[in-house]
Amino acid sequence: MLAYRKNELYCENVSLETVARRFGTPVYVYSRARLISNYKAFDAAFEGLPHLVCYATKANTNYTVLRELILQGSGADITSGGELYRSLRAGFEPKKIVYAGIGKTIAEIEYALATGILMFNVESMEELAAIASVAKRLKKTASIAFRVNPDVDAKTHRYISTGTGKAKFGIPYDEAVAAYRTAAKITHIDVAGIHCHIGSQITTVKPFHNAAVKIEKLRLQLQAANITLRYVNMGGGLGIRYQNEVPPTPRELRDAVVPVFKGFTGTFICEPGRAIVGNAGVFLVSVVYRKNSAGKNYFIVDGAMNDLIRPTLYEAYHDIVPVKKTAARQVQADVVGPICETGDFLGLDRTLAVPEPGSRLAVACTGAYGMAMSSQYNSRGRAAEVMIDGSRIVLIRRRETYADLVAVERLGRE
Ligand code: LLP
Predict the structure, then answer these.
(1) Residue 165: what pLDDT?
(2) How far is CA 133 from the centre of its chain?
(3) pTM above 0.85?
(4) Could you give the CA distance from residue 141 to residue 195 in angstroms, rounded to a whole number?
(5) What's the confidence (pLDDT) of residue 168?
(6) How many A from CA of 142 to the centre of ligand 1?
(7) 83, 297 in Cβ contact below 8 A?
(8) Is the CB of 78 inside a 6 Å radius of any atom of ligand 1?
(9) Of 2.40.10.340, 3.40.50.150, 3.30.420.10, 3.20.20.10, which CATH number belongs to 61-272?
(10) How far apart are CA 176 and CA 16, in angstroms?
(11) How far, in Å, from the CA of 200 to the mean position of ligand 1?
(12) Which residues are bridge partners to 349 per DSSP?
């Protein structure tokens, strides 16, 4: 989505300098074409099979991003009442929404049941009981899949690895058959499928395959016990290239997983987040100051860990490139934000041409878990978001103002 034309960085047909001038920085910029082609790659990978791509909205919940995916036929994977609200507002069909998460509250369960979502991905027996009791009260039937923890190591960052026996997610593999037997007997519960999600930013097909083998084994055991599942949901987690990773394509993922479920005639669900929106986004910042402290170069920019926390939280690598290439001297520098924490950096020890104050840098592959994980820390309003469509530039979320920072606060004494 990013390419230099005469030393200037473009997203589709728009120069990023133009975006920065028009909307200011820091700003997230998304390529509509890339977003859609990423979605289509998933949809096409499952061609010929009953399937549903449920975009993991947590990766990026911008209204326009959701709208664009809906227009392509996407479903949604949600993890909260807030994500359900956003998904419905954007127009996702309730029957294409799956709801995961280990701590769904009664209010959230009521909301989802009243909405008529496709199914709950259930993570504990207490949650199952709660869903059953709400369903009974509302005179509804809740469709469920158990999220089963297959105890497979996804070989990714420990904070985003979810499928090992030690993670807080899902029903332990060895308890799954008993869980299904119990659920099958409960009125107001429709046992619809099986779900597993082993982690995020996974860059080989092996863990997906290993998890599929275990899930299929379980499915066959359940079938033998007269519990027939209509949906197999292998979650999300497909990685993208941030630095030098060579992640599998959606097609390669399908080829590693689908053949495992030989006799299965139901519907496959997948829940990609990062792989759909990650490389469709770039985070633009301006250089405020340069300084050298104790022999180290710092480029201080106007974007920070409140805007993009991935480098700080996961030591994640995002490429940082100049919006205008210059012939200036190349040096090694830390690209840091203005927040009062040593952990506030976007990149460490990067080789970059010394930028002039006011010039822009682009932080690549920030469409997923960028804006979605942003905060107002240090009372910094959240960044603006812009979508590029060919030569069109559309503001899809305005920058937060000082008034926005205090809009929901009340004086305790009043
Ligand atoms: N399904 C479930 C149940 C999930 O928990 C997740 C992500 C997904 C699907 C989508 O996974 P993806 O395709 O995006 O890998 N904030 C972290 C990533 C956390 C992922 C949490 N769950 C990061 O910035 O790397």
Answers:
(1) 67
(2) 31
(3) yes
(4) 19
(5) 86
(6) 24
(7) no
(8) no
(9) 3.20.20.10
(10) 51
(11) 5
(12) none
Q: How far is the CA of 273 from the centre of ligand 1 (A)?
A: 6
* Given 11, 196, 270, 340, the catalytic residue: 340
Q: What is the pLDDT of residue 359?
A: 98
Is the shortest distance between the CB of 200 and ligand 1 below 6 Å? Answer: yes
CA distance linking residue 224 with residue 59, whole number of Å:
38
CA distance 306 to 382: 8
Q: Are 213 and 232 in contact (CB under 8 A)?
A: no
How far apart are alpha carbons 208 and 255 in whole angstroms?
10
Å from CA of 240 to ligand 1 middle: 12
Cα gap 283→242, rounded to integer Å: 14
Residue 153 confidence (pLDDT):
82
| Radius of gyration of the chain, Cα coordinates, nearest whole angstrom | 23
In the numeric block, which tokens belong to residue 177?
């058959």
d(CA 202, CA 74): 22
Q: Is the dihedral of CA 198, 128, 116, 46 positive or negative?
A: positive
Nearest CA to ligand 1 atom 19: 160
Only one residue has tokens 């200037």, namely: 8
Residue 414 has what pLDDT?
Answer: 63
Ligand 1 atom index nearest CA of 160: 19
> For position 109, what pLDDT does the model report?
98
**Would the CB of 100 count as within 6 Å of ligand 1?**
yes
For residue 56 and ligand 1, the question of a CB distance below 6 A is answered with yes
Model pLDDT, residue 154: 80
Q: What ranges do the domains of the chain cover?
A: 2-30+278-406, 61-272
Which residue among 257, 271, 374 has the greatest number of ligand 1 atoms within 8 angstroms of its CB, and so is best to mutate?
271
Q: Does domain 2-30+278-406 have CATH number 2.40.37.10?
A: yes
Is 54 tagged catalytic?
Answer: no
Q: Is residue 256 within a helix (H) or strand (E), and if so which, with residue range?
A: helix 250-257
Query: Which residue's CA is the nearest one to ligand 1's atom 5?
Result: 197
Q: Can you list the residues of the chain whose pLDDT is less than 70? A: 160, 163-166, 414
Q: In the prediction, which pLDDT does 111 show?
A: 98
Domains 2-30+278-406 and 61-272 alike in fold? no
Per the rule left: phi > 0, alpha: psi between -120 and 50, beta: everything else, 386 is beta
DSSP 8-state secondary structure symbol assigned to residue 78: E
